C-alpha cells in the first residue's frame, strides 16, 4: 500500500508543486495526516500497514512543502 | 455514435463538478437524462452507477493521499445500509410530498448557513453515535423519497462542525455503499443499455478523478463549502420545480 501511495503521490507532485496552488492546501493536507496519525496512536494502531503508509505520505508531503518553499519563493523574488 | 458522445461529455462535466463537492452527480444527471428521452428507471439505474463510479475513483485517490479516514465513515455506512431499505419500505405509508417540502426547507437553510456562516470549523460532534443517527436519518429520508444520501449528509456534517473537505472525503467513501445495492435492485427490472453504461462509467471515472484533484489542490475548505451550498440550492430549486408541477 505504501508503495502504491508513494507512486500515486509521485504522479500528483506536479499539481502540488505548482506555485499557484495555495500553501493552505498543502498545510491542510499535512494537518489531516497528522490528525489521523494521532488517532491511530491513541488506538495503538502504530504497527499496522496503514500507519506505515501514513508515515510515507507524510514524508512525501513534507518534501513537497520544502520544494514549494524554495521554488515558489524563488519565483516571487524573480 | 453521436448519442454516446453527448452522454459521455454530459456525464464528464457533471461528475467533475459534483466530485469537487464530494457528492455524486446522479441528482443532476437523472433529470437531464430523463428530459433527453431516456426512460426514468433506466436513467435512475445509470445515475446510481455513475455516482458509485465517480465516488469510488475519488475515494481511492483520497485513501492513497492519506486523507480518507475509513474508520470515521464506518458508522455512516452501517446505519445508511440498514436505514435506506427501511425508508424505501416506509415510502408506501408516508406522504412523499410532505417529506420533500421538509427536505427543500432543510436544503435551503443549510445552503444559506454554509454561505453566510463564518464559524471556525472544529470537529466537535464526532462521536460514533452521532454518525449513526445521521446515517440512519439520511438513510430513512433518501430511501423514502429516492434521493442520494451525499447531499443530505454533507450539510449535516458541516453544520455539526466538521471541516468541509474532510466531510467530502468521507462522504465520497460512503456513497458507493448506498448506491450499488440500489443499482442491483434496479437491474432486476430495468432493460439495461450496457454500451451506454460503459461509456458513462468511463466518463464518471475521469470526472471523479478530475473533480477530486481540483478539490484537493485548488479549493480551500471555505470554497468547498460555497460550492456545496450552490449545489444544494440547485437541488432545492429542482425539487421545488417538481413539487409545484411547473
UniProtKB/TrEMBL annotation, chain B:
Coarse class of the protein's main subcellular location: membrane
InterPro entries found in the cross-reference section: TM_pro_TauE-like (IPR002781), TSUP/Inactive_protease-like (IPR051598)
Subcellular location: Cell membrane; Membrane
Keyword terms, alphabetized: Cell membrane, Membrane, Transmembrane, Transmembrane helix
Membrane topology: Multi-pass membrane protein
Membrane spanning stretches: 6-33, 45-64, 70-91, 98-117, 129-160, 167-188, 194-215, 227-244
GO cellular component: plasma membrane
Family in the record: Belongs to the 4-toluene sulfonate uptake permease (TSUP) (TC 2.A.102) family.
Annotated PANTHER family: MEMBRANE TRANSPORTER PROTEIN MJ0441-RELATED, MEMBRANE TRANSPORTER PROTEIN YJNA-RELATED
Protein name: Probable membrane transporter protein
Organism (species): Sulfurovum lithotrophicum
Amino acid at each position: 500500500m505504501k508503495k502504491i501511495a508513494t507512486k500515486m503521490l509521485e504522479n500528483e507532485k506536479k499539481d502540488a508543486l505548482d506555485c499557484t496552488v495555495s500553501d493552505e492546501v498543502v498545510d491542510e493536507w499535512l494537518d489531516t495526516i497528522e490528525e489521523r496519525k494521532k488517532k491511530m496512536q491513541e488506538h495503538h494502531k502504530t504497527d499496522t500497514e496503514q500507519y506505515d503508509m501514513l508515515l510515507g505520505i507524510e514524508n512525501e508531503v513534507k518534501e513537497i512543502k520544502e520544494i514549494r518553499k524554495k521554488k515558489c519563493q524563488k519565483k516571487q523574488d524573480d | 455514435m453521436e448519442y454516446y458522445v453527448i452522454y459521455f461529455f454530459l456525464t464528464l462535466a457533471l461528475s467533475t463538478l459534483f466530485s469537487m463537492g464530494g457528492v455524486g452527480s446522479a441528482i443532476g444527471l437523472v433529470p437531464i437524462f430523463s428530459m433527453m428521452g431516456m426512460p426514468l428507471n433506466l436513467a435512475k439505474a445509470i445515475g446510481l452507477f455513475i455516482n458509485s463510479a465517480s465516488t469510488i475513483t475519488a475515494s481511492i485517490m483520497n485513501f492513497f493521499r492519506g486523507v480518507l479516514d475509513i474508520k470515521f465513515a464506518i458508522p455512516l455506512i452501517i446505519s445508511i445500509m440498514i436505514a435506506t431499505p427501511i425508508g424505501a419500505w416506509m415510502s408506501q405509508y408516508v406522504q412523499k410530498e410532505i417529506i420533500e417540502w421538509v427536505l427543500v426547507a432543510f436544503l435551503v437553510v443549510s445552503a444559506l448557513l454554509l454561505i453566510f456562516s463564518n464559524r471556525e470549523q472544529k470537529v466537535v460532534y464526532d462521536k460514533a453515535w452521532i454518525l449513526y443517527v445521521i446515517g440512519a436519518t439520511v438513510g430513512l429520508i433518501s430511501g423514502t423519497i429516492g434521493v442520494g444520501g451525499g447531499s443530505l449528509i454533507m450539510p449535516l456534517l458541516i453544520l455539526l462542525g466538521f471541516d468541509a473537505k474532510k466531510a467530502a472525503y468521507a462522504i465520497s467513501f460512503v456513497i458507493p455503499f448506498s448506491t450499488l445495492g440500489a443499482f442491483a435492485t434496479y437491474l432486476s427490472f430495468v432493460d439495461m443499455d450496457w454500451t451506454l453504461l460503459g461509456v458513462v462509467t468511463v466518463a464518471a471515472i475521469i470526472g471523479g478523478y478530475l473533480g477530486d484533484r481540483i478539490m484537493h489542490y485548488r479549493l480551500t475548505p471555505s470554497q468547498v463549502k460555497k460550492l456545496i451550498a450552490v449545489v444544494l440550492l440547485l437541488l432545492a430549486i429542482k425539487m421545488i420545480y417538481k413539487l409545484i408541477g411547473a
